[in-house]
Amino acid sequence: MSHAPLTTLPQWQALKQHFATIGTKHLRELFAADAQRGKQLTVEDVGLYLDYSKQRVDADTLRLLRELAEACELPQRIEAMFRGDKINSTEGRAVLHVALRAPTTEKILVDGHDVEPDVHEVLDRMAVFSERVRSGAWLGHTGKRIRNVISIGIGGSDLGPVMAYEALRDYSRRDMTFRFVSNVDGTDFSEAVRDLDPAETLFIICSKTFTTLETLTNAHAARAWCLKTLGDESAIAKHFVAVSTNAEGVAKFGIDTANMFGFWDWVGGRYSMDSSIGLSTMLAIGAEQFHEMLAGFHAMDEHFRSAPLESNLPALMGLLAIWNNNFLDAATVAVLPYEQYLKRFPAYLQQLTMESNGKHVTLNGKVVDYNTGPIYWGEPGTNGQHSFYQLIHQGTRIVPCDFIGFGHTLNPLPAQGGGDQHDLLMANLIAQGEALAFGKTAEEVRAEGTPEALVPHRTFEGNRPSNTILAAKLTPHVLGTLIALYEHSVFVQGTIWDIDSFDQWGVELGKQLAKTTIAELTAKDEPKLAHDSSTNALIHRYRQLRDGATSGKA
Ligand code: F6P
After folding, report:
1. How far is CA 257 from CA 109, 249, 250, in A?
2. Is 511 a catalytic residue?
3. How far does the centroid of ligand 1 lie from the alpha carbon of residue 92, in Å?
4. Measured between alpha carbons, how far is 468 from 403 in angstroms, rounded to an integer?
5. Which of 21, 106, 156, 197 has the fewest Cβ atoms within 10 angstroms?
């Protein structure tokens, strides 16, 4: 379902022409022209308030972007996704993360089979298991209660669970320890277990394919670590569970498939944190709150499917991202949560956005003649303000920002001088958006009595676009809506760019080459190398360093 070449569409051309006028306008002018702008260019639904008035757009831009979306058949593509069409065309798969959070009353068909009963059967098994572990009914091999949960996975089988655990820590069991191991660097595993007792530790091995080198390597390390203390192979059944679509691989590893929680090939790795990949989240916050999170996702799904484009949150976010990326030529997006619990949200979004939309060919395999996925990055506020915000304010590049904040903190702390520390935090969020948009003119700087030589340095050009997303409080429900907002915004962008947002062929080459390199690094005798001269020299040098006198433990 490819659309006509994007840059030849009249709607694209119209946007280009429109950019010639609006592109030179300052946000100061846009605000001056419409006293209601700050209220009008906002949408509030499903518990999220989006203020996009500080984007460099006017009513015409928004209309033209919607026309572009219609021309790219966005509404039809949304329906195709919800209907279970195989829109991940390069892998021949449906894309149905929305089925993971749909209620039992919904019927979603994949190849004529209703998947909802399957989804809920797994959710129910997860709930029973989680309750057994949380209540102490599930005991370890030696009869001790499970106090530590270590989730082993990587990419989509790690970033979502880590982010959700951190985000919902306030709702989690504080008498249990949750850790996450992803890197094949042995330090990751070693540091995660160094102070833990294997008799009290449960490992969740998360891998959609159950073939991922890093995860299987760490899973083997975990097994060896457990058996070293617990001795007996039969301990594995009490200390290991798996989350995967590959029952055969799980059994081969030695985990009883009775202790496996499945999901399906129509769930992309980076869209899987609300599947059984979220088992650690459920263990941390309990089944009831996990279901609240799913309800949040679902509320956004319903909104995305039914709201008109002009008030559709993911559609707006996606179209504004297109505008910034392709017309303002902004290469990156900074995601700046003013909420410490969302500290891993930018890292999670990096995979979601960049593995999805980092593509250079259309669905038809034609090389694109426009930029696709921007680079996502970010840090929680206010920390970022004291490091990279300088560039966002006064650098030569445009960095559109997504500010995320909440009405309530989960940790109120009275501030010196009155109010709560949370007011200080939110004052910073609001002030940053204002400073970016309006800046400070040279006249204003001079009027402050600044010496002339310093005026250029102290001038803020402004006109730097941002979104502000507000919600009442970070709850499991709100987290679900927020994640689904970005998931669907990614889909909107991919639809306009006419790319497959659900495959990830770009990760394969490195994996393939590493296989050859591993053999060369571990060969007993100096291997015959046939790479380029740099790669050959690096392999040689590494072997020298490794085998030389200065070993890490010397
Ligand atoms: O290498 C990329 C990737 O395939 C991601 O898409 C995926 O989330 C991650 O690896 C982990 O894969 P798996 O869950 O199969 O171990």
Report:
1. 26, 10, 7
2. yes
3. 17
4. 5
5. 21
